[in-house]
Amino acid sequence: MRVLVVITRGDTIGGAQTHVASISKKLIEDGHEVKVVFGGEIGPFAELLKFNNISYLNVLSFLNKFSAKNDLKAYREIKEIITNFQPELISLHSTKAGVLGRIIAKRVGLPVVLTVHGWSFSNGIPFYKRAVSAVIERSLSFMVDKYILVSFYDSNIAKKIKFKVSKLVVVHNGVEDFFVKSNEEKKQDSTLSIVMVARFDNQKNQKLLIDVCKDISGIEISFIGDGPLLEDIKLYSNNLNTLCQINFLGLRLDVKKLIKDFDVFALISNWEGFPISTIEAMCIGMPIIVSDVGGAAECVEENVNGYIVRNDDKEYLRNAIIELRDNKSLLQTYGINSREIFLKKFTDQVMYDKTKLIFKSVLNNK
């Protein structure tokens, strides 16, 4: 099987980029040929691909924003890549790649699998963007052989706006099992340490977590990530009189190694697809606190491995944090359960096996 994978951005590493690298690596290990195409400048994503011996090309004119001049140039360049590589199937990721990639694939007569890492018309996104995106997606849906949705939430959205149910398949994200049991016992501390790994932008809600924890003693919050709202949140935090300790650790490349030193993983958001950061935390056995947005809560079993915060419910979030602070036995139980759920449902092998079956079914139905 020869697969061309196209994703819009290569200047960052987010959930979609991590997913692409994981699937591509598994395909290559399984004896298939893969080439990844991404837009814009070469950045950390290229380093990730290079590290995993995945062949890639970057198309400078293929940018996140729509531009007639650049898009026409990108169209020609990607079409030339297809001519040279001769793929049997095109795997598309992200909105812009999904639009341009489908048009090219239709032109050259290749089957398309589009992986949706959260619709651009989900709740939480501004109304006008949702409306325009929904119209575009509906109008191009006939060009897709199969949609892979990373959450049941996204699948249900597609069904509501009358996508063909036969084209929709849910495959949750998965990550490699990187957990290594340490011989060193974790330092026992009465302080509950909470970590949130997320960009500081309109999608995330670090401010809500700060507002809830500011009056709770025995709590330490650490934020990992950068983004356009980082300085605003820092300033807001510094102007508060808080009982808890708040740390801003910036963008880190050693997140998997770093988060194992914390007690609880939190992801408080305004909208989500199916966040990979949460299942990475489950991999190493952490209790989880997530917002009930998008598919974020689909890896959490309430009162089994964590808590689901609905409608920015500050009181519920506060009670969850206090309960974990005061009940070390519960903290340990939720962590063990997270690890077990991860191994059963969210490894990269589970994700890959399901994805490969979809690719093969599309090729068999050409």
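That was protein one. Protein two is written in the same sequence-then-structure order:
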Amino acid sequence: MKILVRAALAAALILPLAPTFASAAPLDRAKVVLPSAISVDLAANTVTLPLYRGSVHGNPVWYIKTDVSNAAVAKREGLLYAPLLASSASAAQHATGASNAFAFAGGVDFTPQRVLTTAADGSVTAAKPGSVGDDAYSPFVHAAANGAIYNAPIVASGAHPSDVATHNDTLDRVVAIDTRDTAHASVTLVLARGFTNGQPIAYISTDASADGPAAIERSTYVPRLAKAAAAAIAIDVLFNGRTDGESQGIAAAGLHGSLGAEATVQNAAEIGSPLNVQATFPAPNFAASGYSPLWHVAPAVWTAAALSGGKAHRLRSSADFAAAASANLITAPDGKPFGPAPIFVNCPVVGFEAARP
């Protein structure tokens, strides 16, 4: 039973769900909140970002930069300002060198083969991550040069990583990579979708503190992320729910696609999300906010009474989840009161589709 609950919790994080968002390619730059993003394509369900060459013990690796704890640095480097990252020091690794050429203390092994199998009802029966950080690795990087803490996940390794078919040297979310010109290198990753304050958002997932969620999210397994709890914000995740045009959650996701396939440019648009709800969103103009790329997972299920009574509906905000919990319509998967579980995921925001949350 414990294994099944663990697998189910993992599966709630990012299961395929048929896209229900309007498609537009590329996304209007006014709706792209990560300034350095090269392009965001909602129709293709991808984002292309600058890629930087670094090293781990002298060996070449490639990483992205999405967030930083210092507002001036964020503005200068085109990153999201995430003040809460300053509270992640206990989980951060140290790096020397400039921020576009970090020498990291820890790295990632991309050689494991990702395993993800599901039952006929879409529930996860086996999950093994395709990339694993070593004991010194963290996507949160304390830069010796300026003292700031960056969100700088390593997404590929080797002098010229190119395996976007089996992902033997790249993150499982990578569908294209170009390292021919180090000064203009880029990487394209599959997006995830969700909501903040009722508005649809797009983000990426790069790391998780537990192996099951890492496998599901096509991200790197990084246990030490759990040490950064003080830097985390809530993300609400449904297991079950409606399976019609208002689909949301693990049950609907299990009906709309397979988790086991390798992500490619060709199928990226089919790799969707269960439409999780993030508590806060980055403030405009590099202003301080409660935003963080680290999310603390709060899983939920609709009660049998809510489902049979037709009260299940798409939840689009933290307030929606709180109201459903207060009305005893949702609980934690084990039947206990709705609340956070000991799982953390690194999911930096990329943009929004309609109005800014």
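The chain has one domain: 2-352. Keep this in mind for the problem set.
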